[in-house]
Design a protein that fits this description.
By secondary structure, the protein is mainly alpha-helical. It has a single domain, classed as de novo design (two linked rop proteins) (Up-down Bundle). Helices cover 82% and strands 0% of the residues. It has four helices and no strands. Helix 3 runs antiparallel to helix 4.
Length: 124
Amino acid sequence: MHPLHKLQVHAEATSFAQLCYRHARSIVEFDLRAQFLRSARSIAANLAEGAGAPSQAVFARYVAIALASGRETQSHLEMARISGQPSLAQYDELAHWISRLMPRMYRLHAALKQNAARRAKTES
């Protein structure tokens, strides 16, 4: 188990979700806005759930799900941009945040997988 308050990437994912809520008002298409917000929330939620996992391998699975939610959020953001919502400035801010968050989650995922593999090797 990992203390959630020490997981910096979770704090960043939560801040990103808050930013998404602020800017989502400009997305007038209800379904797109709902999917965008759901996937943005899911990033932080899966990191939180994974932090409480009993092993590094299980935590890595939750981080993989958070990564998938991040890619989904990027896709919804692109669709919104194509339709002219949100504004270019809002899009740039959101795109900047997610482009910083994704590599951090990839590094966390890789470290967890490596630690889990090392642990499995020493236990066998």
